[in-house]
Amino acid sequence: MNPPLISILTPVHNPPEYALIAMLASVSAQTLPSWQHCIVDDGSSKPYVRRILDAAAARDPRVIVSYHDTAAGIAAASNTAFAQADGEFVALLDHDDALHPEALRRVADALAADEAIDYLYTDEDKIDEYGQHFDLFLKPDWSPERFQVQMYTCHLSVLRRSLVDEVGRFRKDFDGSQDWDLVLRVTEAARRVHHVREVCYHWRAVENSAAADINAKPYAADAARRAINEHFERTSFQGRITNNASGGVHTIVPALTTDPLISIVIPTAGGAKRLSGAITTLVTNAVQSIVERSSYENYELVVVADASVTPDVLSDLLSIAGNRLHVVPYDSAFNFSDKVNLGVGASNGEMILLLNDDVEVLPDTWRDTYPSLAGSSLWLERLVMHATAPGVGIVGAKLFFNDLRLQHVGVIAHGGLPSHQYRGFRGDFNGYFSNANAVCNYSAVTAACAMVPRVVFEEVGGFDIDLPVNYNDVDFCFKVRNAGYRCVYNPDVQLLHYESASRESRVHPHEIEMIQNRWRTVLNDDPYFHPYFFQKNPDFQPPPMLSDGRLVVPMSYKA
């Protein structure tokens, strides 16, 4: 089968001379010959621009150049380039960036392997004016929830030309974020989105570029906010972006049009721990924080209580929660999975919130001392916002140890087992390309705080009672994903987690054997955890790169 023709679209406006030459050379150096380069100069005032572009077109008939007499903007120039394109796919290349020589061949190989791909993106890095490579970005596979808050796919983006035409091409009102706006519309209709797990694009950090300064184009942030909000309206998502991004990541504010009953299911043995200098019953502390720090009204509390829970504790719970409280007795040997299933069975809610008894909702006042903490009374609204979105099966939270170190920011597969990334890191740690502070998709989240639509819980059969202590929540999340649903981590839902306060956390060999035998494929190839990191370390530490650009390490790590 012949590879598809790929039309590269490049709007040009007064780039540095050396960068323009390097961009053109990177296209000419492609090992895949079936490309077309559609270039539109958007009213450049630098005399060298026309000279260089005309020479490129004269050297190679695959280079097509046209000119705008005056600057019309990047979306308009991109549309002019698009109108010249003959390829089945279009690839977006900025006027001062560069492609890896193997970029289009890797793209063509992926497209040939799956004819349903409508949008494809690759890994990327940055290069400075001296040709030094830095900021290696090894991306997760398609993460639609992350894409709503961060334009993480950006370079290299390849789109099916007919679909771009169908959704209306580039829109001038979104200049600066015209590519994000376009990809949002394309992926809403795309049959398949594919990630090439190799560095195919070098984003040049020149003066006044977003690569050098993320705040270099404030108009782009405003355009992104408007593009995302229009996407939310088109998809009936119950959230809105009200402020521009912080560090390239937007925060979604709930805009609920529904208020489904939430059943908060809390298994407990009635254990206690010293908190703030006083011995405190954990479940009463958890329930009190829910009642006092939640603005959402439509919820019930289902406490699955072991025989060890004393009458005094039950009385305290009733005084705190009132008629919201339903107590479900449990008198069997400890089995977390069984307790969860029993609690869900006794509940009434459309949404199930699984909650450990050793968590505490952060108060709003904590933000005065710790600005990086959300501490928002909207925590339940944020969970509902995502749990009601089509295709979402489970939503988790950001959890902190009581000393405000990170405890949970999503579960990854590493070394053939589930692993908590950044466990024990500083609470204000941003993560790799802000993945600790961005809404993201993961293969699993902890059930210490996780919301599940009841229909999904019942569809996958609840928790497996053969995993009574460990990995039951990971197994559940894998079942949810295996049923075709997405697992979402929302960093703006924040709670303290006094982990393992009531029981030993040691993992037993039979639990390891069971989870590995059942889920070997995802444990050996987590779609949200790049294979390079899988082989090297669990904390997203990027590899060293050679300064001359001849070696881009992840090129050797094929998916």
Give keywords.
559 residues, single chain, alpha/beta, disordered C terminus, Spore Coat Polysaccharide Biosynthesis Protein SpsA, Chain A, 2 domains, ten-stranded mixed sheet
Helix and strand content put the structural class at alpha/beta
Number of domains: 2
Strand-residue fraction?
25-35%
Cα-based radius of gyration, to the nearest Å: 26 Å
The CA-CA distance between the termini, in Å, is 22 Å
Largest sheet: 10 strands, mixed
**How many beta-strand runs?**
25
Find the CATH topology of the largest domain: Spore Coat Polysaccharide Biosynthesis Protein SpsA, Chain A
Number of contiguous helices: 18
Describe the structure in your own words:
With about 550 residues, this protein is an alpha/beta fold. It folds into two domains: about 5-235, Spore Coat Polysaccharide Biosynthesis Protein SpsA, Chain A, CATH 3.90.550; about 255-535, Spore Coat Polysaccharide Biosynthesis Protein SpsA, Chain A (Alpha-Beta Complex). The strands form five sheets. Strands 12, 15, 16, 17, 18, 19, 20, 23, 24 and 25 form a ten-stranded mixed sheet that branches. Strand 1, helix 1 and strand 2 (about 35-40) form a beta-alpha-beta unit. Helix 1 runs parallel beside helix 2 (about 45-60).
